[in-house]
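Q: what sequence does this backbone want?
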């Protein structure tokens, strides 16, 4: 990613960094991959200039941790079947639903959450201290134990109108992020 305090390295350099992180622990590489290739990439690629300026410098410095809320227990790897919904309430958005198997979830300061709206699937930037947001760590995993994996619960989380990612409409948004993340995963 370029600008906003991001390193601006090329794909090969990023891949080699992921290879070295994976050599130490797959959970560490997973944290970095979700931070940069999913949460930060979503904001960088689909966010407004104000959203980029607000979130990316602190995320690039590691001062804020991000997560990517797409997967749901009933939808699995079929994001079109997600049940999380965002509805308009005046100028605000209200999100309700549950996300599962979310890397960095209970350690995150900010979540990029994908939800159905009346106009299709949209992405939202959700501060994890927002009322109605909670994250529960999933213990006793068989592998990737160093990776914080969580369930996210959005219980009528109210967000201002500028929390929506303006450049992401439909499944192309989250699938574009997943495509970006594959490179670091492959190197790992």
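A:
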């Amino acid at each position: 990613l370029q600008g906003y305090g991001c390193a601006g390295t090329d794909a090969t350099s990023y891949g080699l960094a992921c290879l070295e992180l994976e050599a130490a622990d797959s959970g560490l590489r997973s944290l970095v991959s979700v931070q940069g290739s999913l949460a930060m990439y979503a904001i960088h690629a689909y966010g407004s200039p104000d959203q980029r300026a607000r979130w990316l410098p602190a995320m690039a410095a590691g001062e804020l941790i991000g997560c990517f809320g797409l997967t749901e227990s009933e939808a699995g790897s079929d994001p079109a079947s997600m049940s999380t919904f965002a509805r308009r309430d005046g100028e605000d958005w209200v999100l309700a639903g549950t996300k599962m198997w979310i890397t960095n979830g209970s350690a995150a300061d900010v979540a990029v959450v994908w939800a159905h709206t009346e106009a299709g699937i949209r992405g939202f930037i959700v501060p994890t201290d927002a009322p109605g947001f909670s994250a529960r760590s999933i213990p006793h995993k068989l592998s990737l134990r160093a990776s914080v994996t969580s369930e996210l619960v959005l219980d009528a989380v109210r967000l201002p109108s500028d929390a929506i990612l303006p450049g992401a409409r439909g499944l192309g948004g989250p699938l574009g992020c997943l495509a970006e993340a594959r490179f670091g995963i492959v190197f790992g």
